[in-house]
């Protein structure tokens, strides 16, 4: 029993197979994460070390070079590069494509720990931070928060109350606060008084550290009960800090308040952030690696609604929203795919000129597309513009096999006068080899996409997988669903009646509007067929002219190749842009802030600008990630209307 005979005689089994794939795909599509592009693993690990107020030359000699020498012995390395600026050393270790980036990060961390033995002993020298590049963890949302008159209280509120609530949203990895004024207890020491009491700054810092402690004090037992004892020694107020004894002079205890002024203020502001020209504190939201970008953004907005109920004075201004652009892009691709599918069904209807036949062929489109979502879920893919583009392309290819099989079934009914069930079996069996061969040929065309290495290969491999799998499902449908439905929906009496109506030999009853359109298109198609036949005869008798024309057009086309640019992905307009400002090295932060304010004023005068989030004293990328504090640099993240 061949596959066509099995499908015709076992309709329940074929129907259950269809239902299983469709239900599985429908369930999987609800669980698939949504993103702009496929997840890309960049085999690069970075080592960032901060040493405030240290010149680049000294930082390179004592920090950057030892790290470079250490990480160069890591396996599977492709390239090592570094950048050293004032106070920050960055070493980038690039591995060969295909390397396990997780294991590579562990190897680099172990080598950096060895290199730390050569570092100078300076309490201001930070611990090297090792992290791997993951584009999926870039910030998805940037908010500018204002509404609190006291900037110190605003920053404290965001750090202690708001960010923990936002981080509790599903899919959120971190909510980072940037800008504003951070609270600090300032101890302003008077050098003259220190000298008078024969004390030093080291004595002051040591005594503060010794008194500001919270240590375990063991276990106390009372009858059958045990108590855990702690020594609560943290300072509770600036007055308590001022009463701390720091030494003695002439037999008298000297307190900190006698040699210094203790103030509850804020750290020196080295970063200015504003939203639309008004001071604001930024909140940068990053999602988890496997989280759904759109769902995570929606969860964050729900949390912000809760925050605004608790703190109605706070104002959240949206400066960047990656989820909105993703939603719009996905919606555009979906609508394009649906329009393409409807146009394909319409063209099929006009060519087949039979509603039942069109239904038999068109049914393969939703079956193949919905079933493909199961592949995306099992392969840990995402719904993105690349995978949906593959589905949009496959929509036109899906119906090819079904059309060929159905046309051959029609031929057996019309020419050999077979019953539909018999014609479905013989027609499908006759064409199975040709259909399988043509489908495999189409699949092979997309196999080179899997041979591309690097970021492009990771991006477009999903495109090839989606097209191949959807076409494979359509082949299975053409060999099982089409003969099964054709044997039950198509009747020879109906075909004979339609043939007589089209050729004017049947009864003279009034035709419906749809049949009149079908007959009109049939006549036009016959005229096109006749014109094609005439053109084909002309080309066969003038072979050299046709070949010369083909060669000439191909040669002229090659001349245009140098005029065509190359890029990995086409340009897109997300409605977001970034302006970076870099002044001469050594420029004071106040001058940088004034320059950024000037640029900010020019940008906000443009009526097309919706929001402008400015940062002076750091570099702010388009996605909102802040790097080291650099007083001579600033940037503006602009969201257009």
Describe the structure in brief.
The chain is α+β, with helices and mostly antiparallel strands and 641 residues long.
Q: What does the secondary structure layout of this molecule look like, with pairings?
A:
Blueprint lengths: L2 H7 L1 H21 L12 E7 L5 H16 L5 E9 L2 E8 L5 H15 L13 E4 L6 E8 L4 H17 L4 E7 L4 E7 L1 H6 L4 H11 L1 E10 L2 E9 L4 H5 L2 E5 L2 E4 H4 E7 L5 E4 L2 E2 L1 E7 L5 H18 L4 E7 H31 L2 H8 L1 H15 L6 H32 L3 H27 L7 H36 L2 H12 L9 H29 L1 H17 L16 E7 L6 H16 L4 E12 L5 E15 L1
Antiparallel strand pairs: 1-3, 1-4, 2-3, 5-15, 5-16, 6-15, 7-12, 8-9, 10-11, 13-14, 13-18, 17-19, 18-19
Let me know the number of strands.
19
Question: What structural category do the secondary elements indicate?
Answer: alpha+beta
Fraction of residues in helix:
40-55%
Radius of gyration: 36 Å
Oligomer: single chain
Fraction in beta strands: 15-25%
**Helix count from the secondary structure assignment:** 20
What number is the mean pLDDT? 83
The coarse silhouette is elongated
Task: Tell me the distance between the termini.
Answer: 64 Å
Strand neighbour order, sheet with most strands? 14-13-18-19-17
Question: Major β-sheet, in short?
Answer: 5 strands, antiparallel
- Regions with pLDDT < 50 over 5+ consecutive residues? 622-627
Structure description:
The chain has 641 residues and is α+β, with helices and mostly antiparallel strands. Helices cover 54% and strands 22% of the residues. α13 packs antiparallel against α14 (385-416). The strands form six sheets. The chain has a five-stranded antiparallel β-sheet. The protein is built from 20 helices and 19 strands.
